[in-house]
Design brief:
2 domains, about 15% strand, alpha/beta, Response regulator transcription factor, single chain, Arc Repressor Mutant, subunit A, transcription, six-stranded parallel sheet, elongated, 10 helices, Rossmann fold, 6 strands
């Protein structure tokens, strides 16, 4: 796995690079700003970019803008975004876009090396990795969806893990049930939320969006 890191904090940038190299991963370049990051992506053509949300010069959304541009230039690039706290608008946009090969993790999660590496590998393999704290905060701010009231507590548990980007096998392990049981719960969720199969939308993503919009208001 070839990785480029974009982070303006020198200590975090070099610490993250050292951590990944110690795990046998190939950090091919590091960047302190968005322009340097884009140059590194163009030159190195990495598999994954790890990008800070807020970068110079204004420390607002330069990292996000650079990540979007990098994906425009290199559509197969996987991106794991790091943030010091939850940027709600971006996290919601991340899921709305389909979230393939994308992740959103809080910086504090980097210190939990095993969790961070699991998220990094999931994104690199084409999946989604959303920090559980991001999911929790998004849940508290949105309007309830009446359709969600039809879901059982176990189905809501399954949806919560889906929102973190877990697949059926990982959900089964978390809930200590069979993968067949998870598949059955997901079919029931789709039915109760009136999500029929279609070529135009990913039912898992739509179900997660409904879950986030519902919020934890029961």
């Amino acid at each position: 796995m070839r990785i480029v890191i974009a982070e303006d904090d020198a200590l975090l940038r070099e610490g993250l690079a050292s951590l990944l190299r110690a795990e046998g991963l190939d950090v091919v370049a590091t960047a302190a700003g968005p322009e340097q990051f884009l140059e590194a992506v163009d030159e190195q053509k990495p598999d994954v970019a790890i990008v800070d949300v807020r970068m110079p010069p204004t420390h607002t959304d330069e990292g996000i803008v650079a990540a979007v541009e990098a994906r425009r230039r290199h559509p197969e690039l996987s991106v794991l975004v790091l943030s010091a706290y939850v940027e709600q608008s971006f996290a919601t946009d991340l899921l709305t876009s389909g979230a393939n090969r994308l992740g959103y993790m809080l910086k504090e999660r980097v210190g939990r090396v095993e969790e961070f590496l699991v998220a990094l590998n999931r994104v690199a393999e084409g999946g989604t990795a959303i920090d559980p704290e991001v999911v929790a905060q998004l849940m508290t701010r949105n309007r309830p969806d009446p359709g969600m009231e039809r879901l059982s507590p176990r189905e809501r548990d399954v949806l919560a893990l889906m929102a973190e980007g877990l697949g059926n096998t990982a959900i089964a392990e978390k809930l200590v049930v069979t993968e067949g049981a998870v598949h059955k719960h997901i079919r029931s969720i789709f039915a109760k939320l009136d999500l029929a199969p279609t070529d135009h939308t990913d039912r898992r993503v739509v179900a997660v969006l409904k879950y986030l919009e519902d919020g934890d208001r029961r």
